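Entry 14: structure prediction run for Laminin, alpha 3. Input pasted below.
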Amino acid sequence: MSGPASSLTYSLPLQVLQPRPHFSLDVRTRSPEGLLFFAATRGGQSHLALYMSKGRIRLSVAKQKEIFNREKYNDGKWHSVVFSLEKKKFRLVVDGIRAQDGQLTSAELKSMQQFMPPVYLGTAPETFHKELKSKALPKQSVSGCLRNFKMNGAQMSNPTANHGAGPCFEGQTQRGVYFSGNGAHIVINDSFVVGSTLELLFNVRPRTQSALLLHVGDSSRNPDVMGHFLTVYMLRGEVVVRVNQGKGEFVVSVKPKTSLCDGNFHKISVIKRKNVIQLSVDTADNYKIGPPSSTFTLTRDPLFVGGVPGTLHQMLPVKSPFVGCIQEMRINDVPVSFDRSSGVFGSLNLKECPG
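Run finished. Output tokens:
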């Protein structure tokens, strides 16, 4: 879980959650606070929640009954967690150490027999945030790694939805955002205006030669529609910028002196001044002058990084999402904080990339 809004959703058959659910997972984190698991009952009156508070792993059941181990587990090491309901008891075991069992009343037990799928790893949807706050549960996900999620002893299959929960890496890592492809993308701004001037800087370490890097605007391929857009992408090892300001497209490209996929970071700079686009990749650069009658890129659209939703694929010159690492992005000299983006979709790690 790489950000406060990261989550994995599992849509389980209703009968699987009844009557004595048994869950297990491994967690590695340095966060003292955050939600690990959440499941609600019909009507939202009761819940089953696993979370961290002051470094301790706590299990919250029914309306607000809790058990926990006194050890702290936010040490950056892997820890195994088992939690379950057993008739009127609920149990928590961390690294083989069992907390004192919790006890449910008959009414609480009855309410806990009405679980409604789905269940969530990381944060729960915003519709539950008011309930989480009322029960003193964290609404934000723990920042760290989860693995080996099992229910009733069976390994869980792929989640039905992934919101910014990316891969974790063993060993040395580097700062940056890791995109794993498969629909992973970020919306930095819901209504981004390119305008007459734009400065875009970032470092990229891709794993493929062709992929979308950034897009904003109406990129309809209909020749009768003169949309406004700006697209930055890689095509067979070249970096390309394509712009339309309502009077026709103009394109500039640069082939770097070394391969983009050589395992090193490459610095990309895109500068737009009215109808001129200048593109630099490391020490190679190029520029293009567009139609002089239009100097303003009139966009008020989402600014996508790493990919776009499937509905936009056919409108773009490349359909492949980006796979690799992006770091130190600045737009108009303002650092981009990816963990505060408008939307995070698919499998990403917002904190780090493999070393």
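Notes: The radius of gyration is 24 Å. Will compare against the previous run tomorrow.
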